[in-house]
Amino acid sequence: MAEQNEAHGPMEKVADIGRDIGEYIKQQRSNAKISLRQLSKLAGVSNPYLSQIERGVRKPSAEILQQIAKGLRISAEALYVQAGILDLPTGGPVGDAIRAAEELSERQKQVLLDIYESFRRENAASKDTHTRSEQHDHPQD
């Protein structure tokens, strides 16, 4: 029984990430109604290699993920997050909506996300300043 518990060590997590990204790519390809062969051409990746990625046998590099994202017409950032290369982006539902907007180009999405994040940072800083001044005006007894 102890051996099964050890199966969730760092190497197993890497294997899980490989499977997860492969499943995610396969799901995105299926949603886009693109065959494995079509995606391999669009992404400039060999058919067998792409198949191995989807099955979790191979873990693709960031460059390969970028090519696959371009072939799927999705954000490379989405694949990087799935692969564990990037942390989950902030922004909650607004950020998710921007990333999901199919009518926007990747550049337009990034500009909107940058603006949105700058507003969030500005408002958070303003709130911190306001909170500090209130605490200064009303010291606790």
Automatic annotation (TrEMBL):
Entries under InterPro entries matching the protein: Cro/C1-type_HTH, Lambda_DNA-bd_dom_sf, TransReg_Diox_bact_type
Pfam families named among the record's database cross-references: HTH_3
Gene Ontology MF: a single term: DNA binding
Domain HTH cro/C1-type as annotated: residue spans: 25-79
Gene3D superfamilies xrefs: lambda repressor-like DNA-binding domains
GO CC terms of this entry: cytosol
Swiss-Prot/TrEMBL keywords: DNA-binding
Keyword DNA-binding assigned: yes
Xref: SMART domains: HTH_XRE
Domain of life: Bacteria
The name this protein goes by in its record: Helix-turn-helix
Organism: Amycolatopsis xylanica
